[in-house]
Structure of Acyl-CoA dehydrogenase:
Amino acid sequence: MDFNLSEEQLMLKDGVERFIQQEYGFEKRREIAASEEGFSRARWQDYAELGWLGLMLPEDVGGLACSFVETAIVMEAFGRGMVLEPLVQTALLCSAIIDRSGSDAKRQTLLPAVIEGRLLFSLADSEAGSRFKLGCSERTVAHRTTGGYLLNGAKTLVMAGGSADQLLVTARLDDHAENPAIFILERRAAGVTCRTYRLLDGSRAADIEFRDVELEASSLLVAPDRAREVLEAATGLATLASVAEILGVMEAVMEITAEYIKARVQFGQPIGKFQALQHRMAEMFVAVQETRSILYCGIAHLDRPARERSATISAAKAVAGRASRFVCAQGIQLHGGMGITEEYQVGHYFRKMTMMEKMFGDIDFHLARFAATH
């Protein structure tokens, strides 16, 4: 794998970092987080116009057919800006499921709308007590009817679920107890109720209940025989994207902390001259570089067999989780009491890190999954 970015990738990196710096400042982000949806529709349209919503999607649906490296570049910058828009949820996770669904009609209808920013998706998979399990269908069941299906059940922690136009829902079919199916439906359909709430980092999620929701036969997106495979492949991409986002958070905390200890004067000199603090900064730097290295390793294994790919992605998420805990905690410690104030950035990065560490499986989950493959 060539670790040097191409000229086009460097241009993308420069463009997205400049956009985040100019259009997603800390105070602006606080305003967006306080809004009803918890993200900006205007920024979402900007991402569509810049082509970021279709980076990895194929050209036949209007995408750019880029490699995962381009997605990692964007997500790293998004981590630096603590971006709130659900790009991973809609443009990566749900789009990958639709792209792999096997339905060319749905691909040609839905994916161009996602790329253009006209359609926002959320995956409704988690159920109460599921603990990062994929393909949850114990509490959500779709019964066959004469003209389609009747959906009943409940899903929890649906990211941006209250703002989604359509939902991808995992549910158990009558005659398939082992594997779930994936259905697509309107969030505002009759029988769908949604309770939204704010998360630790300012983003929004929802608990969604389905009561006798009538679905047409065409609502079945992925049949049970392929659903788990499709979910695992799409979630793997989303998990690796979250590692890139965590990397951006860590880099931002390290830079802010380095500037602070250079400017903070104690005992007649900047505290950055104290050797103990220099050692802490060096350890933070090593943790950031470890995360970058494991991210590159994960990217290099994306075209490997599923078992090997899954193990490497789990290793990347576990390493990133531990490293980010250390870096963000040290950022708080080196700032002292100011680090946890609402008005200062470092505390918000710590909250973002805490959320990202739990997304798509926490450290213990991924260590266990990695161990199970060896």
